[in-house]
Write a structure and sequence with these properties.
Blueprint (H helix, E strand, L loop, with lengths): L1 H22 L9 H18 L13 H37 L16 H25 L1 H11 L14 H18 L4 H17 L18 H4 L23 H6 L25 H7 L5
Helix pairs in contact: 1-3, 2-7, 3-6, 4-5, 4-6
C-alpha cells in the first residue's frame, strides 16, 4: 500500500505540475522548462537556418518532425506515462534501504560544514555530467543496452532536435542513475538544478545542430557539433570499435579517458550504423524494435 500510495501521489503531482507549466509561463520566477524548450529550440533552429554548416541540407531535414515529437515526449510526456511513478518508487525504496542499514538517505556532503553553495552546484554539475558520460559509454559497450541506443543513432541527417531522439528506456538508464546518485551525494537548491538542466539542454541542442561554428580552444571543455558528429559516424575505426566522443555536455571526459576522435572536419561524413536504411521509420516501430530478439 505504501508503494501504491507513492505511485499515485507521483502521478497526481507530476500531472498537476505539467498542467501548471502550460498555463503559467512565469512560474513565480522559476524557469518554465516547457516554454524554455520551445524558446531554445527556435533559437538554435534559427542558427541552423541563418548559418548552416551543411548548406545543402534542407531546413526541414529528414525526420525533422519525428525528432520534434521525440523532443517533447522524452522531455515531458514520458514522465506522465512512466517515469514519475518509477523515480518516486525508486527513491522511496532506496531511502528505506539506507535507513535500514543506518546510513543517511541524502546529502552526504551536508556533513561537510561550511561548504558554499557554488561548490555544491559545481560538484553537482561535474558528477551529473560524468555519470551521464559513463551511462552513455555503457550504452555502446553492453549489447542489450545498445539495442535501445540504436534509436538515437538512426539519425541520418543531423539537426538540433536529434538531441532528444532516443528510446524511452534511456530515460530509465540515465535518470535513475542520476536521481539516486545525486540525491544521495549532494543537496542543491531546485532553482540551481533547473538552471543546470537548462544549460545542458542548450548545449545538447547546439552539439547536434547543423550550425557553422568553431569552439576553438573551448572544444576541449564543451561538447560541440564538430566533435559530436563523429560519435554518429557510420564508419567506426577499429581503434574505437566500441564508440567514441561520448560527451554529453563536457568533452573533457573523452580527452581524459582517451575516447576522443576527430581526425578531420566531419561535416559530410555518413551517419548511422550498418543497415540503418532498413531501421523502422516511425516512433512506435522504433520503440518496439529494440525489444525484438535478433
Amino acid at each position: 500500500m505504501k508503494i501504491w500510495d507513492t505511485i499515485s501521489r507521483a502521478y497526481a503531482g507530476y500531472s498537476n505540475y505539467f498542467i501548471d507549466l502550460l498555463v503559467d509561463p512565469i512560474q513565480n520566477g522559476m524557469l518554465n522548462p516547457f516554454y524554455f524548450l520551445i524558446a531554445v529550440s527556435l533559437f538554435v533552429w534559427s542558427l541552423e537556418i541563418v548559418w548552416p554548416w551543411r548548406e545543402k541540407q534542407k531546413i526541414i531535414r529528414k525526420d525533422f518532425w519525428l525528432d520534434a515529437f521525440y523532443m517533447f515526449f522524452n522531455y515531458f510526456f514520458f514522465n506522465l506515462l512512466i517515469f514519475a511513478a518509477l523515480s518516486s518508487t525508486t527513491q522511496r525504496l532506496f531511502s528505506e534501504l539506507m535507513t535500514g542499514v543506518g546510513l543517511p538517505t541524502s546529502g552526504v556532503f551536508d556533513f561537510m560544514p561550511g561548504m558554499p553553495q557554488w561548490a555544491r552546484v559545481l560538484g553537482f554539475f561535474l558528477i551529473y555530467d560524468l555519470v551521464q558520460w559513463s551511462v552513455h559509454n555503457a550504452l555502446h559497450r553492453i549489447p542489450w543496452m545498445w539495442k535501445f541506443h540504436r534509436v538515437h543513432h538512426s539519425v541520418q541527417e543531423m539537426g538540433f532536435a536529434a538531441h532528444l531522439r532516443y528510446h524511452f528506456m534511456e530515460n530509465i538508464f540515465y535518470r535513475i542513475a542520476l536521481f539516486v546518485m545525486l540525491s544521495y551525494l549532494l543537496k542543491v537548491s531546485l532553482p540551481n538544478i533547473a538552471w543546470i538542466y537548462a544549460a545542458t539542454t542548450l548545449i545538447g541542442h547546439l552539439n547536434h545542430a547543423n550550425f557553422k561554428w568553431n569552439y576553438g580552444p573551448l572544444k576541449y571543455l564543451f561538447n560541440s557539433q564538430r566533435f559530436h558528429i563523429w560519435h554518429h559516424a557510420k564508419d567506426i575505426p577499429d581503434t574505437h570499435s566500441k564508440g567514441m566522443n561520448f560527451a554529453i555536455t563536457l568533452s573533457i571526459w573523452d580527452y581524459l579517458f582517451g575516447t576522443n576522435y576527430e581526425p578531420f572536419d566531419g561535416r559530410d561524413i555518413e551517419l548511422g550504423f550498418e543497415d540503418v536504411e532498413n531501421f523502422p521509420q516511425g516512433f512506435l516501430e522504433q520503440q518496439i524494435e529494440a525489444f525484438r530478439k535478433k
